[in-house]
C-alpha cells in the first residue's frame, strides 16, 4: 500500500515541475517583449525602473537594456532550474537524498547571487537608460535595501540548512548500511 501523502506530493510536484519548465522559457521572452515595446508601454510599467525615462529610447539603448536585464534574469532562471530539479526528485518520491541537498544549497546561493546581480543591474540600467540624456542629466544609481539584506540572510540560512541536511543524509546512509 502506497502512502497517500507521497502520492499527493508527487502529483503537486509534477505540476510545479511543469510550471518551472514553462517559466524557464517565458521569463526571457517576457523580458525581451518588455524592452521591444518599451516606448509604447503605459507609464505604470516603467515606475519600477531606478531612473525616470521621459523620452522614447533608440533601438540600441533598448537592446543594451535587454542585455543588462539578462543579468538578474539569468540568476532567476538558475534558481528556477534548481527548483525544477528539486520537484523532479519529489515527483520520483526522492525526498531526502544528496541530490535534494545539492538543490537546496544551490537555491540558497541563488538568493545571494540574486542580490549581487540586482545591484549590478541597477547600476548598469541607470547608465544605459540615461546615456542619451544631456551630460548633466546622466545618472548612476545603486540601490541596496532591506529586502536585499533579507534575501542575503534567507539565502545564508538555506545554505546552512543544506549543510545540516547533508550531514543527516550521511547519517541515514551509514545507518542503512550498518549490519
Quickly list its features:
single chain; 179 residues; mainly alpha
Describe what this molecule looks like in 3D.
- The chain has 179 residues and is an all-alpha fold.
- Helices cover 73% and strands 0% of the residues.
- It is built from 4 helices and no strands.
- The chain has helices at 4-36, 59-91, 98-130, 146-176.
- The radius of gyration is 21 Å and the shape is elongated.
- The mean pLDDT is 93.
Short description:
By secondary structure, the chain is an all-alpha fold.
The fraction of residues assigned to DSSP E strands is: under 5%
Biggest sheet features: none
SSE string, helices as H and strands as E:
HHHH
Structural class: mainly alpha
Low-confidence stretches: none
Architecture blueprint of SSEs:
Blueprint: H1 4-36, H2 59-91, H3 98-130, H4 146-176
Amino acid at each position: 500500500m502506497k502512502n497517500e501523502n507521497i502520492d499527493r506530493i508527487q502529483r503537486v510536484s509534477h505540476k510545479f515541475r511543469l510550471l518551472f519548465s514553462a517559466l524557464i522559457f517565458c521569463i526571457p521572452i517576457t523580458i525581451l517583449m518588455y524592452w521591444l515595446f518599451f516606448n509604447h508601454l503605459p507609464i505604470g510599467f516603467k515606475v519600477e525602473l531606478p531612473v525616470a525615462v521621459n523620452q522614447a529610447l533608440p533601438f540600441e539603448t533598448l537592446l543594451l537594456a535587454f542585455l543588462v536585464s539578462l543579468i538578474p534574469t539569468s540568476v532567476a532562471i538558475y534558481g528556477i532550474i534548481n527548483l525544477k530539479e528539486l520537484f523532479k526528485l519529489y515527483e520520483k518520491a526522492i525526498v531526502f537524498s544528496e541530490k535534494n541537498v545539492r538543490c537546496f544549497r544551490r537555491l540558497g546561493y541563488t538568493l545571494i547571487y540574486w542580490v549581487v546581480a540586482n545591484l549590478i543591474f541597477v547600476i548598469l540600467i541607470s547608465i544605459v537608460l540615461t546615456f542619451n540624456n544631456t551630460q548633466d542629466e546622466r545618472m548612476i544609481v545603486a540601490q541596496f535595501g532591506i529586502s536585499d539584506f533579507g534575501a542575503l540572510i534567507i539565502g545564508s540560512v538555506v545554505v546552512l540548512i543544506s549543510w545540516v541536511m547533508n550531514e543527516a543524509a550521511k547519517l541515514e546512509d551509514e545507518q542503512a548500511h550498518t549490519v
